[in-house]
Amino acid sequence: MILGLTGSIGMGKSTVAAMFADLGVPVFDADAAVHQLQGPGGKLVAAIEAAFPGSTADGAVDRPKLRTMVIGDDAAIARLEAIVHPAVAVERASFLARHGDGLVVVDVPLLFETGGDAKVDRVVVVSAPEDVQRMRVLARPGMTFGTFQAILARQMPDAEKRARADFVIRTDTPLEETRAQVRAVIACVAGAEGG
Question: Global pTM?
Fold first, then answer.
């Protein structure tokens, strides 16, 4: 049973993914895979440098510099995604081959936007009110309102994600309540798997 975990920027998806992991569910983190692939000695560093000259330093992708090169440029983003998405798919397939005999979570920020929802059994959307989201994102180091808006523009609206979800986990609650929601999803999916 593959649970797709998604949510717009600043919704608390990383926190929820960690809760699934703490409760013993293997989690594939697409963002972490990208960081590894773009990090020092990563498999994609040379290809990204070739496509975006000056985007790497010290054997790794300079993520802030790369972001400034592609943000707001649909063609550049498409070029970058054509490099990154196939490599992440290989990492995900390897993860599923190792953990595919029970419940697993695939944490993908752009699950709906990339059609990844067709490759999972159920979708969990992590959500919070817009004001909470904005406050969380703008508190991040180096984040500007313009960058936040550009990121949001590439993401499906939260309301649409919630409408398409099998489960919605709210994160504008105390952590224990959020953890209880995660437990309820696991129990529900385990029950469906058994029945």
Answer: 0.84
Residue 73, sorted as left (phi over 0), alpha (psi -120 to 50) or beta, turns out to be beta
> Which residue type, as a one-letter code, is found at position 33?
A
- Let me know whether 93 and 107 are in one domain: no
Structure tokens at 159: 């309301």
Name every residue whose Cβ is closer than 8 Å to that of residue 14 and which is 6 or more positions away in sequence.
31, 107
Q: Residue 110: give the domain boundaries.
A: 1-26+103-190
User: pLDDT tens-digit profile of 113-146?
Assistant: 888 899 999 999 999 999 999 999 999 988 889 8
Beta bridge mates, 179 = none
Q: Which of 93, 95, 118 is nearest to 21 (CA)?
A: 95
How many Cβ atoms are within 10 Å of 50's Cβ, its own excluded? 11
Of 68, 88, 64, the C-alpha closest to 76 is: 68
Instruction: State phi, psi for 72 to the nearest 5 degrees.
Output: 80, 0
